[in-house]
């Protein structure tokens, strides 16, 4: 019999609505950025790579749930929203030209979005009975790796041939530090919510089917 690891709590309707809205907004913004890169402030900022990578990331949880988890758990709306919101806010920030007009916005995005992604990974891969050190370990392992991968991709996508490369080293160090800090904060927040019984989500990747 397939194990069902569900909380009795239902996912708030607002989370589901926000999830759908963020996905729809992401698709619209990416289409706009491809069609009008200057208006979307995405010229020379790897708009094409974002147009491919962001939808793949944003729809990864729905596809995995449909293929592997739907018979065992209800839809993991919160992790899905956390993944989607990272992609949506990045494209929205470019559309509003916040990266170039607000000095601290890029730093905030590295901290916040790495934290969101790390929290999603923790929710999808660990049971809520996990200890704080285990949650921190998982979150930092993913968060630090994701921060490094992003900086490498960012450098080759639009910094290597840009005049910004002379400042890339300092910027990269701060981005890595902020991303790692975001993952650490995310781990502490998720563990605290689990401890208080606030999160309805369980970890589909940690489930085992038994007969």
Description:
This protein is mainly α and 211 residues long. The chain has one domain (13-206). The chain has 8 helices and no strands. It has helices at 13-35, 47-58, 60-69, 77-95, 98-101, 105-125, 132-159, 168-196. Helix 1 (13-35) packs antiparallel against helix 2, helix 1 (13-35) runs parallel beside helix 4 and helix 6 (105-125) crosses helix 8. It is globular and about 50 Å long. It starts with 12 loop residues before the first helix and ends in a 15-residue tail after the last helix.
SSE blueprint and pairings:
Layout: H1 13-35, H2 47-58, H3 60-69, H4 77-95, H5 98-101, H6 105-125, H7 132-159, H8 168-196
Helix pairs in contact: 1-2, 1-4, 2-4, 4-6, 6-7, 6-8, 7-8
Please trace the helix and strand order, writing H or E for each element: HHHHHHHH
- Biggest beta sheet summary: none
State the domain count: 1
In DSSP terms, counting alpha (H) and pi (I) runs of 4 or more, how many helices?
Answer: 8
Low-pLDDT segments: 1-9, 207-211
Structural class by sheet pairing and helices: mainly alpha
Radius of gyration of CA atoms, rounded to a whole number: 18 Å
Helix content: 55-70%
């Amino acid at each position: 019999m397939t194990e069902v690891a569900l909380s009795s709590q239902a996912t708030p309707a607002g989370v589901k609505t926000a999830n759908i809205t963020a996905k729809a907004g992401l698709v619209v913004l990416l289409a706009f950025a491809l069609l009008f890169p200057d208006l979307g402030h995405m010229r020379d900022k790897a708009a094409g790579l974002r147009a491919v990578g962001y939808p793949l990331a944003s729809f990864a949880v729905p596809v995995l749930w449909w293929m592997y988890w739907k018979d065992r758990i209800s839809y993991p709306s919160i992790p899905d929203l956390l993944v989607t919101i990272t992609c949506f806010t990045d494209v929205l920030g470019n559309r509003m030209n916040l990266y170039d007009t607000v000095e601290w916005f890029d730093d905030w995005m590295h901290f916040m979005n790495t934290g969101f992604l790390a929290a999603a990974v923790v929710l999808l891969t660990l049971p809520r009975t996990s200890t704080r050190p285990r949650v921190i370990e998982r979150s930092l392992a993913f968060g630090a790796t994701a921060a490094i991968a992003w900086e490498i991709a960012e450098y080759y996508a639009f910094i290597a041939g840009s005049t910004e490369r002379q400042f890339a080293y300092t910027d990269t160090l701060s981005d890595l530090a902020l991303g790692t800090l975001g993952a650490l904060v995310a781990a502490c927040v998720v563990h605290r919510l689990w401890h208080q019984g606030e999160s309805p989500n369980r970890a589909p990747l940690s489930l085992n089917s038994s007969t």
